[in-house]
């Protein structure tokens, strides 16, 4: 097989196993950092794998998320182009001043100070989930029993949603984010149900506000003195769930699996729990299975880091590949729990960097702290190479993480 630069790769790239990165990453970074690819839809795109280019494109306002443009690549072959071309993507301003105003309204809820205040609640939720897992006995699926529910519980709490509706939120999140598992009409029906639910929820919050993000956003005004429409409020609720659930749920499972696959790392954390923060950052950086990456579209020709991108190009930034760039991360193919600084790009960069990153970091740190405290003897119940990847999700994940203790 020809592995030259003229070969067009099918995306996503294959990997040897769930905890191993695609072997193409190293070759692409060194030989072909700007590579032609084909998306699952059959449409053409351009893949970036080097740290400097990925960082610059993500921070460059000319590269937008306007993936509904007529000449933008469709990621999937579904009629609507999936989540990225959905009505939700159009209800939340994707660029320019409107996007900045929307982010400023949301950002008030995601400060480090607010996250520290939430920390004891998240810890209590984590303890409750571990109680349930221990009661059911080993072996257990750490993802299903712990990693998957924890972020849903947190997001539902932040949105003021009753505990009894948590399972519905999990189902909606999975259906909306899956690129291939569900039919187009199933995803559309799920989206309709979710919008309907949130419409009723927002009406109830208007009548009887609570201590939650939607109650606050209902009455909040942006810098132009405008309030969010009910549709944008609902889209924001969906956006927070979609962005904050599947990503963090999968990262909890992957992080623990990575640390348990190399027992010395787990022992290192047990011996020095102060390394938890570094361990979270290093797990985010090292993630061998981060999913799709960040997709950007450029309407007019632009040059970035020595490369000219023609107008109408859809660019896929592989943060996973960029996070192992040896120019930035010495010995980047190895996990180092003391790595500092660690300027990984897992949360993006620039105006679209993940606004929930303080929440995600808090959840990941608490999850790891509570597991180390409660289940120090935790171990994988299968060989690392037997772990299976989730197929079809926008974000990378493991199907299950069987553990015992």
Using only CA atoms, what is the Rg? 21 Å
Strand order of the largest sheet: 1-2-3-9-6-4
Total E-strand runs: 11
The CATH topology, please? Cytochrome p450
Name the beta content range: 5-15%
Largest sheet: 6 strands, mixed
Overall mean pLDDT: 89
Pick out the low-confidence regions.
1-5, 79-87
- Portion in helices: 40-55%
Number of distinct helices: 16
Order of helices and strands: EHEEHEHHHEHHHHHHHHHEEEEHHEE
Give a topology summary.
Elements: E1 9-10, H1 24-31, E2 34-38, E3 44-48, H2 51-59, E4 63-64, H3 87-91, H4 96-107, H5 112-136, E5 140-141, H6 142-147, H7 149-159, H8 166-177, H9 184-207, H10 213-219, H11 230-244, H12 246-261, H13 263-271, H14 276-286, E6 294-298, E7 302-304, E8 307-309, E9 313-317, H15 319-322, H16 357-374, E10 379-380, E11 402-404
Parallel strand pairs: 1-2, 3-9
Antiparallel strand pairs: 2-3, 4-6, 5-11, 6-9, 7-8, 10-11
Helix pairs in contact: 5-7, 5-16, 7-8, 7-11, 8-9, 9-11, 11-12, 12-16, 14-16
Task: Provide a descriptive summary of the structure in words.
With 405 residues, this protein is an alpha+beta fold. The protein has a single domain, classed as Cytochrome p450 (Orthogonal Bundle). The chain has helices at 24-31, 51-59, 87-91, 96-107, 112-136, 142-147, 149-159, 166-177, 184-207, 213-219, 230-244, 246-261, 263-271, 276-286, 319-322, 357-374; strands at 9-10, 34-38, 44-48, 63-64, 140-141, 294-298, 302-304, 307-309, 313-317, 379-380, 402-404. Helix 1 (24-31) links the parallel strand 1 and strand 2. It starts with 8 loop residues before the first strand and ends with a strand. Mean pLDDT is 89; it is low at 1-5 and 79-87.
């Amino acid at each position: 097989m020809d592995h030259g630069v003229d070969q067009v790769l099918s995306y996503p790239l294959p990997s040897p196993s769930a905890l191993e990165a695609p072997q193409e990453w190293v070759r692409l970074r060194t030989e072909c950092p700007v590579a032609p690819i084909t998306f699952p839809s059959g449409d053409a795109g351009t893949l970036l794998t080097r740290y400097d280019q990925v960082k610059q494109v993500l921070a460059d306002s000319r590269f937008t998320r306007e993936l509904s443009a007529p000449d933008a690549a469709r990621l999937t072959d579904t009629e609507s182009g999936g989540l990225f071309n959905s009505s939700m993507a159009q209800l939340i301003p994707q660029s320019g001043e409107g996007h900045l105003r929307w982010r400023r309204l949301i950002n008030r809820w995601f400060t480090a100070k607010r996250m520290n205040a939430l920390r004891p609640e998240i810890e209590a939720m984590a303890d409750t989930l571990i109680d349930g897992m221990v009661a059911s006995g080993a072996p257990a699926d750490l993802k299903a029993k712990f990693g998957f529910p924890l972020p849903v519980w947190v997001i539902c709490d932040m949105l003021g949603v009753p505990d009894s509706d948590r399972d519905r939120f999990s189902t909606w999140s999975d259906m909306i984010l899956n690129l291939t598992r569900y039919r187009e009409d199933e995803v559309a029906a799920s989206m309709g149900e979710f919008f309907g639910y949130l419409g009723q929820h927002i009406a109830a919050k208007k009548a009887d506000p609570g201590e939650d993000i939607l109650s606050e956003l209902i009455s909040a005004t942006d810098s132009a003195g405008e309030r969010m429409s009910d549709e944008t409020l609902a889209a924001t609720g969906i956006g927070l769930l979609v962005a904050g659930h599947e990503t963090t749920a999968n990262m909890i499972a992957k992080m623990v699996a990575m640390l348990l696959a190399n027992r010395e790392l787990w022992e290192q954390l047990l011996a020095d729990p102060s390394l938890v923060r570094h361990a979270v950052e290093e797990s985010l950086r090292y993630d061998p299975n981060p999913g799709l990456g960040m997709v950007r579209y450029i309407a007019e020709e632009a040059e970035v880091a020595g490369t000219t991108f023609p107008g109408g190009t859809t660019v896929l930034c592989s943060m996973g590949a960029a996070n192992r760039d040896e120019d930035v991360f010495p010995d980047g193919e190895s996990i180092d729990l003391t790595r500092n600084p660690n300027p990984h790009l897992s949360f993006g960069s620039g105006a679209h960097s993940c606004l929930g990153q303080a929440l995600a970091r808090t959840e990941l740190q608490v999850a790891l702290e509570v597991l180390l405290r409660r289940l120090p003897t935790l171990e994988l119940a299968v060989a690392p190479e037997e772990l299976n990847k989730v197929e079809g999700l926008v974000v990378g994940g493991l199907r299950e993480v069987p553990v015992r203790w």
